[in-house]
Amino acid sequence: MKISSFDEYKQVYQQSIEQPEQFWEGIAENFYWRKKWDKVLEWNFKEPRVKWFQGAKLNITENCLDRHLETLGDKPAIIWEPNDPQENHRILTYKQLHDKVCQFANVLKNNGAQKGDRICVYMPMVPELAIAILACARIGAIHSVVFGGFSAQSIADRINDASCKLVITADGSFRGNKPIKLKEIIDDALVQCPSVEKVIVLTRSRTPVSMIKGRDLWWEDEIKRVETQGSVDCPAEEMDAEDMLFILYTSGSTGKPKGVVHTCGGYMVYAGYTFTNVFQYNPGEVYFCTADIGWITGHSYIAYGPLSQGATTVMFEGIPSWPTPGRFWDIVEKYKVNILYTAPTAIRSLMSFGDEALQGKDFSSLKKLGSVGEPINEEAWHWFDEKIGQGRCPIVDTWWQTETGGIMISPLAGLTPTKPGYATLPLPGIQPVLVDENGKEIEGNGTSGNLCIKFPWPGMLRTTYGDHERCRTTYFATYHDMYFTGDGCLRDKDGYYRITGRVDDVLNVSGHRIGTAEVENAINMHSSVVESAVVGYPHDIKGQGIYAFVISPNHHGDEELARKDIMMTVQRIIGAIAKPDKIQFVSGLPKTRSGKIMRRILRKIAEGDTSNLGDTSTLLDPAVVDEIKAGAL
Ligand code: WT7
Questions:
Q1: Beta-bridge partner residues of 521
Q2: Atom 23 of ligand 1 has which residue's CA nearest to it?
Q3: Residue range(s) occupied by CATH 3.30.300.30 in the chain
């Protein structure tokens, strides 16, 4: 199942397009199924209705754990590096991970969790986070991981959207020198979450917490209880290929975040296949993905992808710049990392510390590098190539999305000739198309348009939790019979793809997807705010920064305080990741006569490019534009 030359890639790609079902069936053969499928694929994009490997039975944890025990039982599955380099690291072999997953799966069962229940996971980047999601999968419960940076309100919205029955969390977490009181945030969230019956709390930071009788339980006590019950084993629940595996919330251009749903069979096949091929993983290699399991990258490429392939995956609790900006490189050296998968924003941030941070570091173990989350600028690409890869390591610029489940367009490490800034070519099985605004497919090379995918792949989302219509309108209604990605893209003369960024009102801040409407709603919650408009602007480190234009006539002349209050409000409603970088107070917003905000104009002003704002004559009040221009930050 591992492609081993560029010629082979081209040949396999061709086959995968001509006979997609045979192709995917061949890939699926590499996994362990309790029962094989009756039908490879059934689909229409109209509803949408997509079913892969119908009739097949499996449990993804048998693929990630049990099937490796005989051959890799004593090999490291997870290497964990704590936030504080003084603290001991931990290594879990496949055998140990298997046992811990089974134990915790029994804890979940003891607390009433059953197949199909939704379980919210809000945890630091510790091995128990991986154990928690695998334990859910073991018993057929659906996990919904919420990134540790989200606020109580965001967690409550997500818990309520999926009616989660259980929450798994920790007392607190460490990231850099900032301790975060996770349990306290959960307590605030749960005030408005009637569906939650139990909260399981891991000891991590030893920060004082309030444990509510009958609801809150310590992870460690529950493990002891399982131990006294005797058997640690927990047989895996038999799942249908199309049963839900997890929900992961992501932002769009309108409304609240939506719960992207992935299923057991297709997702497993896709995560494993893409991991092995894109990174050209060889047995024994040490692989380090710097993402957080709270995002799709962590789900697919820290947990499920690598583990299903028997890889050794490094999990890092901390941040790249603490206690020194050489932290990633220390980890690379310490564990002799062979494959490093990170984000452009991290690369740019580490670049900004200068070459001193690289002095004396040993990069010799590295063989392959990867990038994900946003377009990588050429400067960062070359720095990564020269300073980190030392000119020896192929870089894979991997384009994909929460909704796609896994990597879609990317070089195969060392096989596909690369070009800085290009995600290059689609993986076998993936059929990208560029379309114009009328939805007409643009053929030929040297073109650009909106990126769509015209044929299903096993890792694609099946629905948005509790609202299938939203899934249809968001992804399948813009263009006829295609999945619309929301990204703009160009295809050069060689047929190479370069993603140019979102074409909708979605921002990409440090590789995190944030909807402008969501930030506006949060800002508008502040009592002195009448209205606001949020746009992105180019930011040296974050890729995009958040620029908010705010009408707030009653801030009593103290603009600085008003700014801080608005920041605090956004932090409360969404989380610190959505705090605006700039807030400009304005007396009005540029609107058309029908009342629509002209974002194009605001975007230009935020970018600092006011030379040509285009036609402003259709505006209700053109004078407001001059005022906004004059006050731009
Ligand atoms: C959006 C998806 C995929 C995991 C991390 C983000 C942007 C992602 C690339 C890339 C250019 C990229 C796109 C996409 N994006 N990877 N290699 N080059 N842009 O997942 O939060 O679902 O965001 O991230 O705009 O639509 P996500």
A1: none
A2: 401
A3: 506-630
Q: Model confidence over 397-417: pLDDT tens digits?
A: 999 999 999 999 999 999 999
Exposed/middle/buried for residue 356 (C-beta within 10 Å: 0-12, 13-18, 19+): exposed
Instruction: Look at ligand 1, atom 6, and give the residue with the nearest C-alpha.
Output: 373
What are the phi and psi torsion angles at 212 (to 5°)?
-85, 125
- Cβ proximity of 253 and 238 under 8 Å: no
Strand partners, 244: 263
Given a contact cutoff of 8 angstroms between Cβ atoms, the answer to whether 398 and 407 are in contact is yes
Ligand 1 atom with the shortest distance to the CA of 485: 26
Which architecture, in CATH terms, is 506-630?
2-Layer Sandwich (3.30)
Residue-wise pLDDT for 506-518, tens only, equals: 999 998 999 999 9
Atom of ligand 1 nearest to the CA of 399: 17
**Mutation pick for ligand 1 pocket among 247, 369, 425, 513 (CB with most ligand atoms within 8 Å):** 513
Measured between alpha carbons, how far is 27 from 592 in angstroms, rounded to an integer? Answer: 52
Residue 338 tokens read as: 């062979």
C-beta 374 within 6 A of ligand 1 = yes
Residue nearest to atom 17 of ligand 1 (CA): 399
Q: Judge if the beta carbon of residue 456 lies within 6 A of ligand 1.
A: no
Amino acid, single-letter form, for residue 357: A
- Domain limits, CATH 3.40.50.12780, in the chain: 6-452
Give the amino acid at 97: L
| CATH no. of 6-452 | 3.40.50.12780
Average pLDDT, integer, range 69-88:
98
Per-residue pLDDT tens digits for 503-549: 999 999 998 999 999 999 999 999 999 999 999 999 999 999 999 99
pLDDT at 230: 83
375 lines ligand 1 (CB under 6 A): yes
CA 342 to chain centre: 12
Mutation test residue for ligand 1: of 270, 499, 518, 542, the one with most atoms within 8 Å of CB: 499
Which is nearest to 370 in space by CA: 297, 454, 309, 267?
297
Q: What tokens were used for 611?
A: 């030379």
Higher per-residue confidence, 155 vs 555: 155
With a 6 A CB cut-off, is 411 part of the ligand 1 pocket? no
